[in-house]
């Protein structure tokens, strides 16, 4: 394996035209982010201020998880709240009071804005600062918007983390440079990355969000941050406003992506490429072995991505480069050119990229392209299966640990399984 | 503002989607922000539908709000019509669009579409899913049903009826329709239209060709049925045919409406569940305490089946359907209890804990409450999860429905014979009361050693004197301690009533200020409470 990141000669998709569409979007809103964020931040509670629809959405998305005394809830607006704004603020205080009495173990409370609360311009930031005065230091109250009118699915995490950035402790000015890994990762992935960092000789690093609200990492001009997820535009901006600088890298999906990401981390912290290579070699070898088995099934297969999480580009890059899949169309709800520059460069030239959605037209394109695998949401998956397509439902890619070397095989497996299943059932 | 961990019903536009999805040749254009398309997956995943619900969303975003969301709606409606060519178009707003006050009805009128357009006013901040479904069906029927030029002459042909109420995402609606259709055809009644499930707008137009209506689910169909009875003089059935007894009543009611011989009709009745209930194995079901919660119709019907067909004791009855609170309250008085009308799951949980049932009949939520409380449970009503849209035939209604109910409700309980054996071999190392029912799987736990726990915090000898002193008031009122022999005696009481015996004895000891519970106290308490 080479210590240098191989750059394709064809120039990738750096300045490829992107099909921008507007119309009906078949996507989740940012509230859905709560479902994995509350698992990550163990002493945080998420209170959505919204309608019955919001409560119903989270319930539907959370499935069975909702019943184990969850750390999220909805304050449902009713007619009385719509009648006058002052009233709504009092009501919110009452609800929060009741909630915190019920859950004294909570250290951080997020007031999460929704479409209804945004449209009636219910000032949640004022509510948060008022409640802060009342409940600090036991509970810190923050607010962000997870509304559908402002955020798409994973952007809810971006909004949440961006709201957290201003309250991160200040790094002392003469502090040693520190690497901040940004984006919620499964605990198992985080632990693997930690072990690799230590093997590389990287000592000063932290993960954001942290598992506990009380253990927030410090940030300052010495901070270098490395994104672990592609959907963190606002968080990045907020970190930069506090002096932190971004480390550019592809995202840690697949053996190649993870290696490049580790190299970027090492280079940013002044480690030699050789040291990084040595540290990651066994894991990378394992990942490549694991991928080889899946390559047999996937090579030459055509895949079509409906927009969902902004993970589509890195996933497409991984599937194309490491598993030999052909990209039919890669849709993303939002394309952050700067953060995805390295990914775009790695995508095969001529890949059809699309940003935004007009779902009926996109379905027409999908039907015309007859891909072997379609990555889409659960609202489309069964109907497409019924039309004879093989689908991979995209939400699983957000909930399953897929980053890093040890998960590369599992990630490929998520795409081989529906194909294998179709084959088995046909036999 | 209401603090909600979760909700029994969705917003009213989801009710409208249930009607639109149930029907064919209908399309629903919903003014809604990006994200509200989540509701699609209720239909494609929970009900496993093979096609997308016939709903077009405008999915407006923040940047659209400054501009012309009304234009966005008009474009969406026009494109939806052009693409899907439905026979009728439903238009409406979700909760957020209700706030921005575009007028879907007026905007669509302006498009001059060549099909009926039905605007839906669904107040999202007051009403919920079932109300939305009922209102949508009502509006569809009002708009589409045509008064016949000639009134039907009774006796000219076979009596004919409509089946009203089955929707998409309805708990066992698919199989209930099949069961009731078969039952009605068996007694000589023709089915005119089933609506909304699988009906087209053209089908709704000929609703008036029936002599009467069969209302399967009042939550959805009551409003439409009463409109039909006012305008087309179609009487409607009132009995919900859940359970063998209710099914026989239902047949009598239908026979009366259809002008058929009720005796002949009832003679067709056959079901295994009444015999199963009489068989000696079911003796053990006698007086089992059952808590019932669900939508109003299913809860009332289930309570009745539980009480008169299975011989359970109904210790709790409640619903989240506020629209039918009166009916549920009325039903509850028959069992000498107060109905619980609430959509707050914490309240339901508290009521279940307080009632101390041995079986919970409820929704998906009660299933989880019961799991937490370690109680057997069966699902009788929506909301339900994917496993309650089964592949196999499993109606709730009619005689096959009664069979399904018997199996479903008895299954989570200990089988009679098994319970008897455990009574006989109590304390046996493999076959003891802490073992899980064999048919429910799970690893067998070893019997607890029969040693009575050591006494903890035995009050000092002079405590009786202190109890009357002022200091006693400051002490928390703790349950009295159990003497070892009393604890041993308690373990001889069958485990399914032991919890109650323990609570009663402790309450008794507390009320009599008995510091240590002895065998005497145990039997004093038993005598006290058996009065």
Structure described in brief:
By secondary structure, chain A is of the alpha/beta class. Chain A has helices at residues 34-40, 52-62, 79-83, 85-102, 115-119, 124-135, 155-164, 187-200, 233-241, 254-268, 273-298, 312-323, 341-346, 359-369, 378-386, 396-399, 408-426; strands at residues 18-21, 44-50, 72-76, 108-113, 140-145, 178-182, 205-208, 223-227, 245-247, 302-305, 326-332, 353-356, 373-376, 391-393. In chain A, helix 7 packs parallel to helix 9 (233-241).
List the helices and strands and how they pair.
The complex is a heterodimer of chains A (427) and B (531).
Chain A: E1 18-21, H1 34-40, E2 44-50, H2 52-62, E3 72-76, H3 79-83, H4 85-102, E4 108-113, H5 115-119, H6 124-135, E5 140-145, H7 155-164, E6 178-182, H8 187-200, E7 205-208, E8 223-227, H9 233-241, E9 245-247, H10 254-268, H11 273-298, E10 302-305, H12 312-323, E11 326-332, H13 341-346, E12 353-356, H14 359-369, E13 373-376, H15 378-386, E14 391-393, H16 396-399, H17 408-426
Helix pairs in contact in A: 7-9, 8-11, 10-11, 11-17
Chain B: E1 2-4, H1 12-22, E2 26-31, H2 40-46, E3 55-57, H3 62-65, H4 69-84, E4 88-93, H5 95-100, H6 104-109, E5 117-120, H7 129-144, E6 160-164, H8 173-186, E7 190-195, H9 201-205, E8 212-215, H10 218-232, H11 244-258, H12 262-267, H13 273-278, E9 289-294, H14 296-309, E10 313-319, H15 325-334, E11 340-341, H16 345-355, E12 359-362, H17 364-373, E13 377-379, H18 398-410, H19 416-424, H20 463-468, H21 471-474, E14 481-482, H22 484-490, H23 495-511, E15 516-517, H24 519-530
Parallel strand pairs in B: 2-3, 2-4, 4-5, 6-7, 6-8, 9-10, 9-12, 10-11, 12-13, 14-15
């Amino acid at each position: 394996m080479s210590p240098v990141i191989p750059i394709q000669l064809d120039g990738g998709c750096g300045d490829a035209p992107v099909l921008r569409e507007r119309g009906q979007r078949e996507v989740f809103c940012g509230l859905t982010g709560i479902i994995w964020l509350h698992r990550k931040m163990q002493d945080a509670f998420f209170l959505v201020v919204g309608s019955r629809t919001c409560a119903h959405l989270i319930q539907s998305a959370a499935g069975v998880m909702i019943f184990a005394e969850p750390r999220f809830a909805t304050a449902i607006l009713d007619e009385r709240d719509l009648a006058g704004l002052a009233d709504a603020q009092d009501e919110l205080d009452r609800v929060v009071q009741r909630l915190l009495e019920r859950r004294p173990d909570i250290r951080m409370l997020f007031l999460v804005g929704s479409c209804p609360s945004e449209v009636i311009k219910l000032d949640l930031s004022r509510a948060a600062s008022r409640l802060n005065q009342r409940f600090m230091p036991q509970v810190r109250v923050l607010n962000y918007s997870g509304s559908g009118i402002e955020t798409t699915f994973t952007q809810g995490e971006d909004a949440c983390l961006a709201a957290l950035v201003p309250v991160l402790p200040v790094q002392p000015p003469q502090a040693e440079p520190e690497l901040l890994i940004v984006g919620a990762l499964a605990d198992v992935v985080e632990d693997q990355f930690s072990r690799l960092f230590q093997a590389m000789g990287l000592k000063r690093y932290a993960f954001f969000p942290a598992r506990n609200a009380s253990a927030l990492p410090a940030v300052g001009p010495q901070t270098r941050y490395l994104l672990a997820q592609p959907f963190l535009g606002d968080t990045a901006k907020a970190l930069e406003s506090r002096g932190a600088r971004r480390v550019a890298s592809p995202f840690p999906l697949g053996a190649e992506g993870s290696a490049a990401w580790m190299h970027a981390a090492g280079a940013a912290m002044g480690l030699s490429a050789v040291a990084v290579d040595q540290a990651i070699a066994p894991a990378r070898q394992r990942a490549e072995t694991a991928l080889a088995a899946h390559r047999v099934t996937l090579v030459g297969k055509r895949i079509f991505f409906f927009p969902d999480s902004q993970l589509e580009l890195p996933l497409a890059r991984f599937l194309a480069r490491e598993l030999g899949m052909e990209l039919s169309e890669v849709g993303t709800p939002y394309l952050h050119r700067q953060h995805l520059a390295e990914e775009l460069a790695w995508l095969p030239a001529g890949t059809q990229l699309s940003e935004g959605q007009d779902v009926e037209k996109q379905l027409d394109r999908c039907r015309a392209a007859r891909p072997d695998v379609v990555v889409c949401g659960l609202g489309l998956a069964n109907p497409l299966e019924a039309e004879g397509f093989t689908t991979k439902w995209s939400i699983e890619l957000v909930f399953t640990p897929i980053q890093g070397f040890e998960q590369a095989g599992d990630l490929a497996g998520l795409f081989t399984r529906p194909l294998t299943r179709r084959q088995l059932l046909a036999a | 503002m209401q603090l909600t961990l979760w909700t029994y019903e969705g917003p009213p536009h989801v009710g409208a989607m249930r009607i639109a999805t149930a029907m064919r040749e209908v399309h629903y254009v919903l003014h809604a922000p990006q994200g509200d398309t989540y509701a699609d997956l209720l239909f494609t995943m929970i009900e496993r539908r093979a096609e997308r619900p016939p709903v077009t969303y405008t999915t407006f975003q923040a940047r659209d709000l400054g501009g012309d969301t009304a234009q966005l709606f008009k474009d969406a409606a026009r494109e939806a019509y052009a693409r899907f060519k439905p026979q009728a178009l439903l238009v409406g707003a979700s909760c957020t669009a209700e706030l921005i006050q575009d007028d879907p009805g007026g905007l669509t009128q302006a498009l001059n579409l060549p099909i009926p357009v039905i605007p839906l006013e669904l107040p999202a901040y007051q009403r919920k899913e079932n109300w939305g479904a009922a209102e949508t069906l009502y509006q569809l029927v009002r708009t589409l049903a045509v008064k016949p030029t000639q009134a039907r002459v009774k006796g000219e042909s076979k009596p004919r009826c409509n089946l009203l109420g089955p929707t998409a995402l309805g708990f066992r609606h698919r199989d209930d329709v099949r069961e009731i259709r078969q039952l009605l055809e068996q007694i000589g009644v023709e089915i005119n239209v089933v609506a909304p499930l699988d009906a087209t707008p053209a089908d709704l137009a000929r609703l008036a060709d029936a002599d009467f209506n069969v209302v399967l689910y009042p939550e959805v169909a009551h409003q439409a049925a009463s409109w039909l009875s006012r305008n087309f003089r179609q009487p409607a059935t009132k009995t919900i045919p859940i359970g063998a007894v209710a099914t026989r009543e239902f047949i009598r009611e239908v026979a009366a409406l259809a002008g058929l011989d009720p005796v002949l009709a009832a003679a067709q009745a056959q079901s295994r569940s009444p015999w199963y209930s009489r068989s000696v194995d079911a003796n053990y079901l006698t007086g089992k305490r059952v808590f019932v919660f669900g939508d109003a119709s299913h809860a009332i019907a289930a309570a009745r089946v539980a009480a008169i067909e299975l011989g359970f004791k109904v210790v709790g009855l409640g619903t989240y359907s506020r629209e039918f609170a009166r009916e549920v309250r009325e039903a509850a008085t028959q069992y000498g209890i107060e109905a619980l009308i609430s959509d707050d799951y914490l309240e339901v949980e508290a009521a279940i804990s307080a009632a101390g049932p041995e079986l919970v009949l409820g929704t998906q939520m009660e299933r989880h409450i019961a799991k937490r409380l370690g109680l057997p449970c069966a699902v009788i009503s929506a909301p339900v999860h994917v496993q309650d849209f089964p592949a196999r035939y499993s109606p709730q209604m009619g005689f096959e429905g009664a069979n399904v109910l018997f199996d479903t409700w008895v299954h989570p309980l200990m089988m009679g014979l098994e319970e008897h054996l455990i009574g006989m071999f109590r304390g046996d190392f493999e076959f003891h009361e802490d073992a899980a029912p064999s048919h429910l799987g799970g690893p067998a736990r070893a019997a607890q050693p029969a040693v009575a726990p050591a006494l903890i915090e035995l009050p000092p000898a002079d405590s009786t004197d202190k109890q009357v002193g002022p200091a006693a008031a400051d002490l928390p009122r703790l349950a009295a301690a159990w003497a070892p022999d009393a604890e041993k005696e308690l373990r001889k009481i069958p485990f399914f009533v032991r919890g109650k015996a323990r609570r009663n004895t402790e309450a008794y000891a507390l009320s009599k200020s008995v510091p240590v519970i002895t065998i005497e106290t145990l039997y004093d308490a038993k005598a006290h409470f058996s009065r």
